[in-house]
Amino acid sequence: SVSVPVLANGGIFSLADAETMYSQTGVDGVMSARGLLKNPAFFAGHEHTPIECVEKYVGRALAYGTPTPILHHHIMYMMESQMSAVERRSFNSMYVSGEIQIVPIGTEASFTRYIAQVKTILNDSGLQHTMHDSGTNFQGDYALVSQVVQKCMESVLENGAPRVLCFVKFGARTDKDYSKELPAAEKVQRYLGAGQ
Fold first, then answer.
1. What is the tens place of the pLDDT at every residue in 5-62?
2. Segment 112-143, tens digit of pLDDT
3. If you ran DSSP here, which 8-state letter would residue 65 be given?
4. In whole angstroms, what is the distance from residue 100 CA to residue 170 CA?
5. Dihedral sign of CA atoms 127, 100, 97, 171 in order
6. Are 136 and 183 in contact (CB under 8 A)?
7. Measured between alpha carbons, how far is residue 5 from residues 26, 28, 50, 111, 192 in Å?
8. CA-based nearest residue to 73, from 172, 143, 176, 161
9. Nearest-angstrom CA–CA distance, 72 and 63
10. CA–CA separation, 120 vs 123, rounded Å?
11. Cα 25–31–34 angle (5° rounding)?
12. pTM
């Protein structure tokens, strides 16, 4: 016997799991990590994440500036059991446009070698993009964009930068099919060309 509270953890994905763990081990309490990511309300007896819980999470995440990839990841976790396979594929293949800025920190004044590697990653990925002096505009599949951003950040660190800052802006819409749209910069160039 010990004089401090003993808590159990591991494999707890429902209230039934928690009750079984509690009754079989005699611990003082039960914790959950991945189970609560999937359903933050299961200790309250909810079999699936209530929509009110998802709405509250989104509101707070936006208020506190949660990065978009993390926001998307947690919504996917919470809604996974309530989505069909088609809906999950659609949600994970959201088409987006935006801008990425990657800034090596603690390096020499020139960023050329870092940006050259980032450009190579972008070209190899097949992601539609336009690089400019202060960043890169892109449009493409959300999942692909997330993978490319991670590879770009890793490449900067692997090339000797002790730190890297990454700023990403995303946009999505339902009134147009981004996959069939020209990048905004190309539209402007064509518009200007037509007026000459």
1. 999 999 999 999 999 999 999 999 999 998 999 999 999 999 999 999 999 998 898 8
2. 888 899 999 999 998 889 888 889 999 888 87
3. T
4. 9
5. positive
6. no
7. 11, 6, 31, 53, 71
8. 143
9. 15
10. 5
11. 125
12. 0.51
